From TrEMBL:
Residues 2-81 form the Formamidopyrimidine-DNA glycosylase catalytic domain. Keywords: DNA damage, DNA repair, DNA-binding, Glycosidase, Hydrolase, Lyase, Metal-binding, Multifunctional enzyme, Zinc, Zinc-finger. It comes from Microbacterium radiodurans. This is DNA-(apurinic or apyrimidinic site) lyase. GO terms for molecular function: class I DNA-(apurinic or apyrimidinic site) endonuclease activity; damaged DNA binding; oxidized pyrimidine nucleobase lesion DNA N-glycosylase activity; zinc ion binding. Residues 300-334 form the FPG-type domain. Belongs to the FPG family. The keyword Zinc-finger applies.
Length: 334
């Protein structure tokens, strides 16, 4: 499932390529035909990301709400404008690690790179989901020339401008909403560090966690408690805090709860900047390059069941918590 950093990156891509332009909307699959007909011909005027959900506003106060869920994905084609704040002066995409060292973009074979990792502006075809990987390029690196691009697979919604195409596949939610419905949907969600005042978000998060008997490992995944954290960030944040995932929220020291929020603020920013869920700190340039290129070198505990803990050597445990995989070190997180 895409986690918060991916959805914010997708929203930024919509802001760069779709917002401010009239949009042709269609539902090649047919399951969103009525909604597409309402959107067709309207100008996109605003986009918001809150946690794992994106809200795209069109003229005359019509909103599109999209939740990608476990299997949803956006495919972009056409002129994809990358984020200029992370483009280097020579036009290549650069990357800055936590220690401030500029290095060349590393392409992740497992596919967590963002749209901007392909460089821009250029014509390209990319898929944006948690894996956020480039697809559809020819052997010479040039993208498909046909425009608009052919529909591939089950496309719930296609949004098309003169130069950019966005195809939505397999979302959990794709629906039109009124402004009041959007406000109600956002109000139900827990705080997102990039929405509203982060200090107020911290207070909301601390207040909820500190009164709950629910295990902290469940609370971090509850989108009504905090927005955007998924399985990867959950496991990594708990390890970084050396916190047992079964500890009831109300038993977690307030300073530790505040530390969790502040760590989420930091990790979310890194994920948005790099397009990857980098959760290890203070890596030298070579170790950082390895981590960017391979998920196996990027995380403390996630996806490391049975392997020795990077800190103490104890075998990492894998268990199920509310039908989701949980990775943790029983020694470091006692």
């Amino acid at each position: 499932m895409p986690e918060g950093h991916s959805v914010h990156r997708i929203a930024r891509q919509f802001d760069r390529n779709i917002v401010g332009r009239p949009v042709r909307a269609s539902s090649p699959q047919g399951r969103f035909a009525e909604g597409a007909a309402v959107l067709d011909g309207r100008e996109a005027v605003e986009v918001r990301a809150v946690g794992k959900q994106m809200f795209l506003a069109f003229e005359n106060e019509v909103w599109l709400r999209v939740h990608l869920g476990m299997y949803g994905a956006w495919d972009f084609a056409g002129e994809i404008l990358a984020d200029p704040t992370i483009a280097s002066a020579n036009g290549r995409m650069g990357q800055t690690n936590q220690r401030g060292t500029d290095i060349d973009r590393v392409y992740d074979d497992a596919g967590e790179n963002s749209l901007s990792s392909i460089g821009a502006p250029r014509r390209s075809r990319v898929r944006v989901r948690m894996s956020e990987q480039t697809t559809g390029l020819g052997a010479d690196g040039e993208a498909e020339a046909e425009w608009p691009p052919p529909v591939v697979g089950q496309v719930r919604l296609r949004l098309l401008t003169d130069v950019t195409c966005a195809d939505l596949r397999g979302p959990t939610a794709c629906q039109l909403q009124t402004p009041d419905e959007v406000l109600a949907a956002i109000t139900k969600l827990g705080p997102d560090p990039l929405v509203g005042d982060p200090a107020e978000g911290e207070e909301r998060f601390v207040a909820v966690v500190r009164r709950k008997p629910t295990p902290i490992g469940l609370l971090l995944m509850d989108q009504n408690v905090v927005s955007g954290i998924g399985n990867v960030y959950r496991a990594e944040m708990l390890f970084r805090a050396r916190l047992n995932p079964h500890t009831p929220g109300r038993d977690v020291l307030e300073e530790v709860v505040r530390g969790l929020w502040r760590d989420w603020v930091r990790l979310l920013a890194i994920g948005i900047e790099t397009g990857q869920m980098m959760t290890m700190d203070d890596l030298d340039p070579e170790a950082y390059r390895r981590a960017m290129a391979s998920r196996d070198d990027r995380h403390w505990v996630y996806h490391r069941a049975g392997l020795p803990c990077r800190v103490c050597g104890t075998a990492i445990v894998l268990e199920e918590m509310a039908a989701r995989k949980l990775y943790w070190c029983p020694n470091c997180q006692r």
